[in-house]
């Protein structure tokens, strides 16, 4: 598209709207979970799958979605993705039971994996190099806005109970937006393809999804009522075996046509391997914290969705402020120490939260949570913004696109695993007999504290793994190349929570 063509700004608005829809839809669901549970009678296991199912499908399809755009055209796959996402949102809003909602959420995640990877690829193909810095800055603002506004939007839509639909408008709101984006996108977005697109690796996708499913399903079973069974341990062990088969297949795929789902040679780069470990474990942290936090406030403390959403505002603002400062001022000067400081800062906030939850008990109020939430948010902001650059800094330029896709896929996998682990670290310590109204507050507070000890421990482990990251990312020392790598379409910041 020529630089003088004003349609590129309409195209930008359309793809940014789609990115905003995805980011909001990830964060908007948590705050409505208690309403969903009450209205549909969903079990705690089903609640985990409503969130984890989206993350699992999104993670499994992310790299393939980018490659489909490279092969068949980014505009075509983007429109297919946004059309499917809109349909899946309608099915979520119309779900008659928890099973239908879970299936619709999985479909929503799968269609998002077609839509989201095309966003930055379309921007890259549409705008000349000298305009991309401004455009990516705008995109970063949209990411921050989506993270901040999602919980509050979800709280408002749930509290307003529009037309007596309770939680359903959090999904139905996507319909007019999605239809408009579909119609306008077909007119204003210019088609583009990668000159040398990698082939699809559908076997790899199936193995990733199967391995994750075998790990997640036993974790999400209701262990408050049922003890762990031998078949559950066997299934998780078999899931690890599936990942071993995946590694062997990816080596074969590399030799066969050079288009593996996972570029295993990247793991020979020490900083990349360490960064992937950080992404995976940080995804676990986010998956655990955001779900148990919602359950603690709305079910344990009995707060409304709006009350809980408003309580999280200091956290979101701290994340945004620290993220901007870390990229612009701190990382260029202090390098990986900023990320390590972020891990310790977030862990400190978690420890303060543990103390406050125990000290104030069920009588805790929102302003008392502000201190740990601001500290945690500041720590998270120091990590999330510069982490991708740090992980990619020593990756060869020809593999930058594949590495970017793997980073985001890994974080989504970690997020799904974290959501699955909630049944162990949170529900696993709640006695079924303590779910009576008189004791539920105390039981959920104790389970929340127990979960946060796990979160703090993982953050300390992340601090030590970060020592393998480069002292200063090379992007800050040498500058990046203006080149579109294969699979560049999948390089997009991941949302903060699910």
Automatic annotation (TrEMBL):
The lineage of its organism: Bacteria, Bacillati, Actinomycetota, Actinomycetes, Kitasatosporales. The chain crosses the membrane at residues 9-33, 45-65, 77-96, 102-123, 135-158, 170-190, 202-219, 231-250, 271-293, 305-326, 338-355, 367-392, 413-430, 450-469. This is MFS transporter. Residues 11-475 form the Major facilitator superfamily (MFS) profile domain. It is found in: Cell membrane. The keyword Ligase does not apply. Residues 475-490 have a biased composition (Basic and acidic residues). It comes from the Bacteria. It is a multi-pass membrane protein. Residues 475-498 are annotated as: Disordered. Keywords: Antibiotic resistance, Cell membrane, Membrane, Transmembrane, Transmembrane helix, Transport. It holds the Pfam family MFS_1.
């Amino acid at each position: 598209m020529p630089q003088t063509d004003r349609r590129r700004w309409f195209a930008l608005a359309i793809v940014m709207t789609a990115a905003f829809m995805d980011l909001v839809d990830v964060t908007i669901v948590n705050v409505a979970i208690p309403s969903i549970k009450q209205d549909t009678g969903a079990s705690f296991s089903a609640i985990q799958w409503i969130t984890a199912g989206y993350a699992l499908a999104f993670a499994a399809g992310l790299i393939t979605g980018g490659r489909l755009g490279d092969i068949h055209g980014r505009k075509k796959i983007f429109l297919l993705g946004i059309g499917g996402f809109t349909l899946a949102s309608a099915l979520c809003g119309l779900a008659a039971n928890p099973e239908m909602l879970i299936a619709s959420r999985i479909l929503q995640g799968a269609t998002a994996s077609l839509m989201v990877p095309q966003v930055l690829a379309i921007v890259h193909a549409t705008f000349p190099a000298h305009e991309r810095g401004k455009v990516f800055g705008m995109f970063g603002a949209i990411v921050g806005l989506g993270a901040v506004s999602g919980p509050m939007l979800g709280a408002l839509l749930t509290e307003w109970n529009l037309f007596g639909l309770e939680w359903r408008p959090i999904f139905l709101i996507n319909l007019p937006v999605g239809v408009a984006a579909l119609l306008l996108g077909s007119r204003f977005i210019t088609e583009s393809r990668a000159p040398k697109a990698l082939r699809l690796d559908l076997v790899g996708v199936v193995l990733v999804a199967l391995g994750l499913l075998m790990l997640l399903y036993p974790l999400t079973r209701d262990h408050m009522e049922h003890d762990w069974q031998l078949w559950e341990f066997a299934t998780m062990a078999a899931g690890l075996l599936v990942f071993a088969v995946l590694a062997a297949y990816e080596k074969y795929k590399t030799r066969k046509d050079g288009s593996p789902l996972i570029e295993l040679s990247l793991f020979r780069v020490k900083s990349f391997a360490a960064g992937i470990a950080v992404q995976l474990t940080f995804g676990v942290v986010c998956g655990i914290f955001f779900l148990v936090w919602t359950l603690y406030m709305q079910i344990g403390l009995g707060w409304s969705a709006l009350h809980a959403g408003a309580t999280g505002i200091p956290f979101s603002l701290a994340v945004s402020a620290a993220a901007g400062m870390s990229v612009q001022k701190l990382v260029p000067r202090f390098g990986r120490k900023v990320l390590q400081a972020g891990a310790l800062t977030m862990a400190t906030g978690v420890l303060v939260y543990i103390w406050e939850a125990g000290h104030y008990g069920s009588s805790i109020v929102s302003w008392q949570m502000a201190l740990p939430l601001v500290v945690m948010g500041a720590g998270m902001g120091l990590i999330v913004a510069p982490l991708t650059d740090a992980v990619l800094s020593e990756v060869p330029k020809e593999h930058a696109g594949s590495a970017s896709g793997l980073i985001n896929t890994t974080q989504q996998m970690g997020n799904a695993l974290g959501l699955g682990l909630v049944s162990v670290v949170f529900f696993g310590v709640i006695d079924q007999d303590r779910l009576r109204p008189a004791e539920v507050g105390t039981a959920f507070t104790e389970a929340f504290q127990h979960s946060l000890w796990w979160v703090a421990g993982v953050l300390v482990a992340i601090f030590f793994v970060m020592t393998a990251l480069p002292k200063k990312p090379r992007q800050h020392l040498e500058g990046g190349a203006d080149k579109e790598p294969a699979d560049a379409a999948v390089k997009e910041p991941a949302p903060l929570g699910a």
